[in-house]
Write a structure and sequence with these properties.
single chain, 182 residues, mainly alpha, Four Helix Bundle (Hemerythrin (Met), subunit A), two-stranded antiparallel sheet, 7 helices, 61% helix
Length: 182
């Protein structure tokens, strides 16, 4: 199947690209935390409906499989939680980037037989992350970390928006894979 670059881009970002850096008011931040809290529930529901043969479906040609996306969400959000804790306990820490594509082909992420473990990880991490985030006052969301791969400083408010989007983005990719079956 030959797809145009524009068609591939739509398949790659089914809900649009990640939010760009901006200032978030406290109400927006709280809504983003609520969105983060909803991701594990959606993952649990979706994982209960997926059949074994669907684990290798892809949302676009050459993309990660459904199984790899489930595992990636766990990997990424564990890193987000650690970044949150460093940001709250250090002054503008430099975070450790990782190669998500290499992580996606490791034995714990390439298989579809244990996505429920990743769903449990996401549930636990989101519970703890949201507990910490809900405890913060508005000023705390201005705290920052430095991301060396992107050479930019990120506020906790921006991180909340990013990870709210990230969970929804990958949920949409899983749903697209189940519908399109690439």
């Amino acid at each position: 199947m030959n797809l145009s670059q524009a068609e591939i881009e739509v398949l790659k970002y089914p809900i649009g690209k990640s939010p760009s850096q901006k200032l978030y008011d406290f109400e927006e931040i709280k809504k983003n935390i609520d969105r983060i809290a909803e991701v594990p529930v959606a993952l649990m529901k979706l994982s209960a409906e997926i059949k074994a043969e669907e684990m290798n479906y892809r949302y676009r040609p050459g993309s990660w499989t459904v199984a790899q996306i489930f595992h990636h969400i766990a990997d990424s959000h564990v890193n987000a939680y650690i970044r949150l804790k460093f940001t709250l306990t250090e002054e503008n820490p430099t975070i450790k980037p990782y190669d998500e594509n290499l992580w996606a082909v490791m034995p714990d992420a390439a298989s579809g037989d244990d996505i429920h473990v990743s769903v449990i990880i996401v549930s636990g991490i989101h519970h703890r992350m949201c507990k910490v985030l809900h405890s913060l006052n508005e000023e705390a969301f201005a705290k920052t970390y430095f991301h060396p791969a992107y050479q930019k400083t990120v506020t906790l408010a921006e991180m909340c928006a990013l990870y709210a989007w990230h969970g929804e983005h990958h949920l949409a990719q899983i749903k697209a894979a189940l519908e399109k079956k690439f």
